[in-house]
Amino acid sequence: MRSSRLIGAAFATLASLIFTNAYPAEMTSAQVKQADALAQALEKSCLDNAALKGAPDALTRAMGQWISSPEVCGCEVRNLRQVLTPAVLAMKQEEQKDFFVHFSLTKGAECIVPAIKTNLSASCEGVFGSILQSVPAEDLKKKLQSHGFANADAFLARTCGCFRHSLSEITTEAWVDSSVSAYNAYLERKRTGDQSIQAPASPFDGIASKCVVPLTSPSNTPAAKPTQGEAGRAVVMHDVPAGWEIKPLTERQANEGIVLSLHSQALGASLIMSTPKRRDGADSAGFAAARRSALAGKVQNPRLSDITSLKINGKAAWRFEVAGSIEGYAVTYLATVAENADSMNMVLAWTSQAKYEAQRDALTRTSDNIAAPPR
Known about the structure:
single chain, 8 strands
């Protein structure tokens, strides 16, 4: 009896391997070899996942671990084998790149979404608890109390309860639909060269905006939406103006100290904020001048405005513009720098040069309210 079970298991394993390596169309031996190489490369990349595993914030690192498990990577490889055809293998390099972007956002997401939902629901308190531990105790206490939370345990209970409920309502199909929107935005950026085109927020982005700092605290006092970025800034809040949505930070942005990223579909504009520390005796006007020079060095054919000194809601501030082009895309930046006691709030907004004059006032108002919010 035992030997028959072992033989049955062996046949089942063999059948599984045969099915796993099957392709949906007739291929030559050379094409099978090429397809196998792509599948192996995907599996290696998935298992390594160095970018997410080495991310600066605890949540992204945890997600990197969850989506690089052998189970998830095996699922992605099986899904890839189902869509590889001779036509895909014959694509030019740029076409094949687009194919893999689409695959990762659709068939890949079918493997990733369940893993994120399951693991985040199970380990929410641990992930966010590690984020809170990186914030100085006195600062954390003040931030939590300002939003109606008596302590970190109350914050974690409310936040993780919100996450678990919201995650349970997300379907893989809805996530994939939002991923397709992201892919279409990617194609439109390629077609037009307009780098301000961004996709609508994904279901997970919506949960993060809703749950990391609840829209209403336990005292029913409206709370502002959170900024993003490094671990210690997870509970820093700013009001997000109507018509703007929070965008997830890229790894590069987080490493550069950016704490907030916004996009307005209506304005065709984007905005980021950083809060660099002030050094003793540092000249704030000199800081603004240095940032202007740095920004000018990132564009081709830069045109720089003068630096204007002004007051924004009672705070000393400086403003300047830099226009130029990036990879053929003509862009204009509006930079606003406001003084704080121990740091500078630098807000950088931008849109295409064609739209800038019409959007200047709106970008100025938004920048002012974020760089130096009224008390």
